[in-house]
C-alpha cells in the first residue's frame, strides 16, 4: 500500500524547544539562593573595593545635580540654571573643581619631605662622585709624577756614568791620576757619589772577609809571653782586634756631596746635562759627542726637546 503525500517523513520531523516555565521550580530556587549566598559570603579584594569606589566616585562626579536636590533648589533661587555658571560672569567655571583623592595613609607634607631627602641624597652622591673623580685625578697625577721622577733617576745615573767615563778618558789622555787613585774630595761632585759607593762596597766586602776569617781573633786565648808571632798565627792566637779596618776607615763627612744630593733629582740631572754639553760637547739623549760647541743637529738639553 503506497504512502500518501500528506504523510510526513520521519527524517524531516522537527522538535520544538520546550518553553521556559514562568514559575521557578524548587531546584532552580535552591540553586539561585546558593549562588546568592556564595556571592554575599565572598570577601572582595582590596583592588576590587578600590575599583568599585573609584567607579562610584566618577559616576557621581559625572552626574549633574538633579533639580530635586536641596542644594540645586537653593542655587536656583539665586538665578542658577542647569549647565550655567555661578555668578554674573559668563566666563566663570561651569564644572566643579576635580577632587584629588589622597589614597595613601601618609601625613600632609610627607611628599615634600621625600623630595627633600631625595634631593639631599642626589646632591651627596654628586659630591662623592666629584670627590672620587678628583681623588682619581690626584692619584693619576701622583703616579705620573712618580714615574717622571724614576725616569729622571735613571737618566741621572746614566749621565753620571757617562760623565765619569769621559773624565777617565780625558785623564788617560793627559796622563793624570785615575779616579780610583784620587781622594773622594778631589772627584767632581756631580758623579762623586758613584766613587763613594764603590769605596763603601769594597770596605764592606773587606770587613765581611775579616769577620769570616778572623773568628779565632775574636775569642779570648791564652798567650805565652815568650811565644813568637809566627807560632801565634799558626795556632790561631792572633790577639789583634778584628775591627781594625773599621777604626782606620771611618767615613769622613762630605758637606759638598750632601748639599748636592739634597737637591731635587731633576735639578741634579739638569746640572749634569749642562756639564756634559759645555765640557765634552756630549748630549745624553742624542747619545753623540759633537765636534764643536755649537752641537749642530741637537734639538736641546732636555728629553722633551728631543720628542
UniProtKB/TrEMBL annotation:
<dbReference type="GO" id="GO:0000776">
    <property type="term" value="C:kinetochore"/>
</dbReference>
<feature type="domain" description="G-patch">
    <location>
        <begin position="67"/>
        <end position="113"/>
    </location>
</feature>
<dbReference type="GO" id="GO:0003676">
    <property type="term" value="F:nucleic acid binding"/>
</dbReference>
<feature type="region of interest" description="Disordered">
    <location>
        <begin position="81"/>
        <end position="181"/>
    </location>
</feature>
<feature type="compositionally biased region" description="Acidic residues">
    <location>
        <begin position="1"/>
        <end position="10"/>
    </location>
</feature>
<dbReference type="InterPro" id="IPR000467">
    <property type="entry name" value="G_patch_dom"/>
</dbReference>
<feature type="compositionally biased region" description="Basic and acidic residues">
    <location>
        <begin position="33"/>
        <end position="57"/>
    </location>
</feature>
<feature type="compositionally biased region" description="Basic and acidic residues">
    <location>
        <begin position="16"/>
        <end position="26"/>
    </location>
</feature>
<dbReference type="InterPro" id="IPR039249">
    <property type="entry name" value="GPATCH11"/>
</dbReference>
<feature type="compositionally biased region" description="Basic and acidic residues">
    <location>
        <begin position="90"/>
        <end position="136"/>
    </location>
</feature>
<feature type="region of interest" description="Disordered">
    <location>
        <begin position="1"/>
        <end position="69"/>
    </location>
</feature>
<dbReference type="InterPro" id="IPR025239">
    <property type="entry name" value="DUF4187"/>
</dbReference>
<feature type="compositionally biased region" description="Basic and acidic residues">
    <location>
        <begin position="146"/>
        <end position="181"/>
    </location>
</feature>
<dbReference type="Pfam" id="PF13821">
    <property type="entry name" value="DUF4187"/>
</dbReference>
<protein>
    <submittedName>
        <fullName>G-patch-domain-containing protein</fullName>
    </submittedName>
</protein>
<dbReference type="Pfam" id="PF01585">
    <property type="entry name" value="G-patch"/>
</dbReference>
Amino acid at each position: 500500500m503506497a504512502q500518501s503525500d500528506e504523510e510526513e517523513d520521519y527524517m524531516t520531523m522537527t522538535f520544538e524547544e520546550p518553553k521556559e516555565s514562568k514559575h521557578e521550580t524548587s531546584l532552580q530556587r535552591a540553586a539561585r539562593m546558593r549562588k546568592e549566598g556564595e556571592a554575599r559570603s565572598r570577601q572582595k579584594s582590596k583592588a576590587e573595593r578600590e575599583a568599585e569606589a573609584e567607579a562610584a566616585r566618577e559616576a557621581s562626579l559625572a552626574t549633574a545635580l538633579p533639580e530635586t536636590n536641596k542644594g540645586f533648589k537653593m542655587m536656583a533661587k539665586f538665578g542658577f540654571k542647569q549647565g550655567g555658571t555661578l555668578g554674573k560672569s559668563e566666563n566663570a567655571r561651569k564644572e566643579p573643581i576635580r577632587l584629588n583623592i589622597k589614597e595613601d595613609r601618609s601625613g600632609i607634607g610627607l611628599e615634600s619631605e621625600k623630595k627633600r631627602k631625595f634631593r639631599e641624597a642626589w646632591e651627596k652622591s654628586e659630591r662623592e662622585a666629584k670627590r672620587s673623580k678628583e681623588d682619581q685625578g690626584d692619584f693619576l697625577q701622583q703616579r705620573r709624577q712618580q714615574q717622571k721622577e724614576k725616569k729622571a733617576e735613571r737618566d741621572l745615573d746614566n749621565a753620571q756614568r757617562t760623565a765619569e767615563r769621559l773624565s777617565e778618558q780625558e785623564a788617560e789622555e793627559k796622563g793624570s791620576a785615575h779616579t780610583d787613585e784620587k781622594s773622594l774630595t778631589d772627584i767632581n761632585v756631580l758623579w762623586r757619589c758613584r766613587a763613594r759607593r764603590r769605596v763603601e762596597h769594597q770596605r764592606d766586602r773587606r770587613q765581611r772577609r775579616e769577620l769570616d776569617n778572623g773568628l779565632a781573633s775574636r775569642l779570648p786565648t791564652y798567650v805565652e809571653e815568650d811565644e813568637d808571632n809566627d807560632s801565634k798565627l799558626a795556632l790561631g792566637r792572633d790577639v789583634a782586634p778584628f775591627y781594625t779596618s773599621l777604626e782606620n776607615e771611618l767615613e769622613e763627612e762630605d758637606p759638598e756631596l750632601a748639599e748636592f744630593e739634597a737637591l731635587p733629582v731633576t735639578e741634579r740631572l739638569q746640572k749634569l746635562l749642562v756639564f756634559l754639553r759645555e765640557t765634552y760637547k756630549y748630549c745624553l739623549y742624542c747619545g753623540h759627542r759633537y765636534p764643536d760647541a755649537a752641537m749642530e743637529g741637537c734639538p736641546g738639553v732636555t728629553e722633551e726637546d728631543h720628542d
